[in-house]
Amino acid sequence: MPLVVRKTLRTDLAVVDGLAHAGVATVHEAQGRTGLLRCDIRPIFRPARVAGNALTCEVAPGDNWSIHIAVEQAEPGDVLVVTPTSPCDDGYVGDLLAGSLQAHGVRGVVIDAGVRDTATLTEMGFPVWSKAISAKGTVKETPGNVQTPIVCAGAYVRPGDVIVADDDGVVVVPREQAATVLEAAQKREASEASKRPRLAAGELGLDIYGMRDRLAAKGLRYVDYADTP
């Protein structure tokens, strides 16, 4: 039987917004290179950057009924995360559903399926990360679970986990780790900021990152061309 879980836990939006500022690549590195969704989940327009609490939703193939149910559970700062119970590329979300989601404070959609009305969604400034773009519509016959743990595009997502999405892809941060990951991401940003002008000035990453001793330990040798056979 399909299930809707109400009053789920959510991550503080100050932490969510901090992770949005850091971006997907930095967050992924900061949490030990975990949590990435498959790389075929792409934004329908660029540039796009958002983070929010995961509002999770399972849909039957070719059926978007559960998304309408999910709108009722939405809170400001959420990102809708949709996974089909069997692979399907149909256009589950269009401009009408997007308008409804926006009205309830949803910041964007991540869906392991299709989306349509992309020109209008772009004009609306409503970001969507999807596997496909498809004009094929859906029916409303089979409800699925809402606000339960799901697997979306290869990543485990629970309600209230943080979804960070930008032009590089999508990453999920477990809600219990979000504040710690944000701290690590900010430290990483500061470190990168200190190195950026040095690299731009021509200093080698080999020296900045102290790579030479490690490379020597791996057996790397330098020889002049005149000394090669």
Describe what this molecule looks like in 3D.
The structure is a single chain. By secondary structure, this protein is α/β, with parallel strands linked by helices. 33% of the residues lie in helices and 23% in strands. It contains 8 helices and 10 strands. The strands form 2 sheets. Strands 1, 2, 3, 4, 5, 6, 9 and 10 form an 8-stranded mixed beta sheet that branches. A two-stranded antiparallel ribbon has the order 7-8. Helix 5 links the parallel strand 5 and strand 6. It is elongated, with a radius of gyration of 21 Å. The protein starts with 12 loop residues before the first helix and ends in a 12-residue tail after the last helix. The relative contact order is 0.22. The model has no long low-confidence stretch (mean pLDDT 97).
Annotate the secondary structure layout:
Layout: H1 13-22, H2 24-30, E1 42-43, E2 50-59, H3 65-73, E3 78-84, E4 91-93, H4 95-103, E5 108-115, H5 118-124, E6 128-133, E7 150-152, E8 155-157, E9 162-166, E10 169-173, H6 178-200, H7 205-208, H8 212-217
Parallel strand pairs: 2-3, 3-5, 4-5, 5-6
Antiparallel strand pairs: 1-6, 2-9, 7-8, 9-10
Outline type: elongated
Number of helices: 8
By DSSP, the count of extended strands is: 10
Query: Helices and strands: which structural class?
Result: alpha/beta
Low-confidence stretches: none
Mean pLDDT: 97
Radius of gyration: 21 Å
